[in-house]
Design goal:
The chain is α+β, with helices and mostly antiparallel strands. Helix content is about 25%, strand content about 30%. The chain has a single domain, classed as Aminopeptidase (3-Layer(aba) Sandwich), CATH 3.40.630.30. The longest helix has 15 residues. The structure holds coenzyme A.
């Protein structure tokens, strides 16, 4: 298995694997593949990595910029993690963990990213350093499911808004 950035021709396999992965997921409305397509069209797919087994794409992760409403000071750009998917037959083999770890490292290495937020299962995401913050919040989900990870130990205060590609 190797990880590489998305390239031309990957959009259909990414959509298909995302649809299959989320078909069995709780809290899914089945539109995650459409979000990725809209992010790509809007030029907001800042980091898009695929996991490949030979030539087959078996996993994918997307990161896109988020706005922080109400933040008073200038702050570096923050990003939202997701959607992230691994095809059902290859789940629980560490592929999701590798995609998340490499994606976060890619963002951090740009030197311009302040941090990353995620909406998901705390039991899974805390291993990557994500935790809820009283300062940086997302009002559309229970607080324990919205977590932040700063790259520079600063967490701006405000309310997170995902890109319009996430609007249904
Ligand atoms: C979420 C997803 C990307 C993870 O990918 P993956 O390759 O299966 O995950 P990994 O193999 O890296 O990690 C799985 C490990 O995390 C652990 N884990 C998973 N969810 C957990 C949780 N809620 N609490 C604690 N541990 C958890 C599992 O125990 C597993 O370890 P084990 O095999 O030793 O038991 C994948 O399951 C998926 O595509 N799910 C459907 C789509 C989805 O829900 N995406 C995330 C939306 S936020």
């Amino acid at each position: 298995m190797h990880i590489r950035p998305e390239q031309a021709g990957d959009s259909h396999p990414i959509a298909e694997l995302t649809r299959r992965a989320f078909a069995r997921a709780k809290h899914s409305d089945g539109t995650e593949q459409d979000i990725i397509d809209r992010l790509r069209k809007r030029g907001k797919l800042t980091c898009s990595l695929v996991a490949c087994l030979g030539t087959e794409i078996i996993g994918h992760i997307a990161f896109s910029p988020v706005c922080i409403i109400g933040a008073h000071n200038q702050h570096p750009q923050w990003y939202g993690l997701g959607p992230v998917s691994v095809i059902p037959a290859q789940q629980r083999r560490g592929i999701g963990k590798t995609l998340i770890t490499q994606g976060l490292a890619t963002l951090e290495k740009t030197g311009t990213a302040g941090g990353c937020v995620v909406l998901g299962d705390p039991g899974y995401y805390q291993q990557f350093g994500f935790m809820p913050s009283p300062n940086l919040t997302y009002p559309h989900a229970p607080a324990q499911y919205f977590m932040v990870r700063s790259f520079d130990s600063n967490i701006p205060a405000g309310i997170v808004r995902y890109d319009a590609a996430f609007d249904t």
